[in-house]
Amino acid sequence: MRLILLGPPGAGKGTQSHFIKERYNIPQISTGDMLRQAVQDDTEIGRKAKFIMETGGLVPDDVIIELVQERIHKTDCEHGFLLDGFPRTLAQAKALSLTNISFDHVIEIDLDDEIIVKRLSGRWVHPASGRSYHVENNPPRKPFKDDFTGEPLVQRDDDQEVTIRKRLSVYRTQTQPVASYYLSMAAADKTNTLKFFKIDGSQPPLVIFEKIAQELE
Ligand code: AP5
């Protein structure tokens, strides 16, 4: 199974990706997580990406495309994978099409901007696993500690309101056209291999996941 998960920042892509990867046993490829790791490791890509990410912009297409191309050709992707946060521009989507890798589903999670701002400003994450919590909607069992490891949770540098609003504006101008690109591609696919569906991200996480699972199965 090969999937693409689209949606604005904070729509719940990471949350749903974790459910999907557990149930379907496929790797989650999150370009955001890969870039944060590169920043932490102080690699050349990390140094290029750090300021762009902190200020809510998009890392250049050539950097991201190379990163993803390399990752999806690793052996753990042979039986499928889930792309979370890629493609984010039409140039990235077109580069992915050129690989001739076929996808089964493109899922777009939709959510209102004001709900997103509330969600992201209350988000705390466990960096090692990518598990994400929310102070009100999804609190950890012990305050500011990961439920599984007990390690401290942290807030992301780009989860400040001014940066969240910049990320939303970048999403609407640069990434929304990617959803339209796949919608048209699915509509034109006479073999019905590629399916596109959009889901309301304001429902509880497990309700969203069960709806996604119904579509996948
Ligand atoms: P990335 O890490 O991909 O961030 P994002 O797309 O902005 O998405 P988020 O991780 O913020 O949100 P999410 O949708 O995963 O929501 P989550 O599940 O965590 O990218 C970061 C940066 O890297 C970009 O800004 C860019 O600079 C760069 N980058 C990455 N990919 C790139 C690319 N392809 N090209 C160029 N640059 C790239 O949930 C959010 C919160 O809500 C959590 O607290 C969660 O617990 C809570 N929550 C989740 N679901 C629900 C629900 N249903 N109800 C209530 N609360 C919920």
TrEMBL record:
EC number(s) from the headed UniProt entry: 2.7.4.3
Predominant localisation class: cytoplasm
Record keywords, A-Z: ATP-binding, Cytoplasm, Kinase, Nucleotide biosynthesis, Nucleotide-binding, Transferase
Chain residue ranges for the region called NMP: 30-59
PANTHER family: NUCLEOTIDE KINASE
Function: Catalyzes the reversible transfer of the terminal phosphate group between ATP and AMP. Plays an important role in cellular energy homeostasis and in adenine nucleotide metabolism.
Protein name in the entry: Adenylate kinase
Organism placement in taxonomy: Bacteria, Pseudomonadati, Pseudomonadota, Gammaproteobacteria, Candidatus Berkiellales
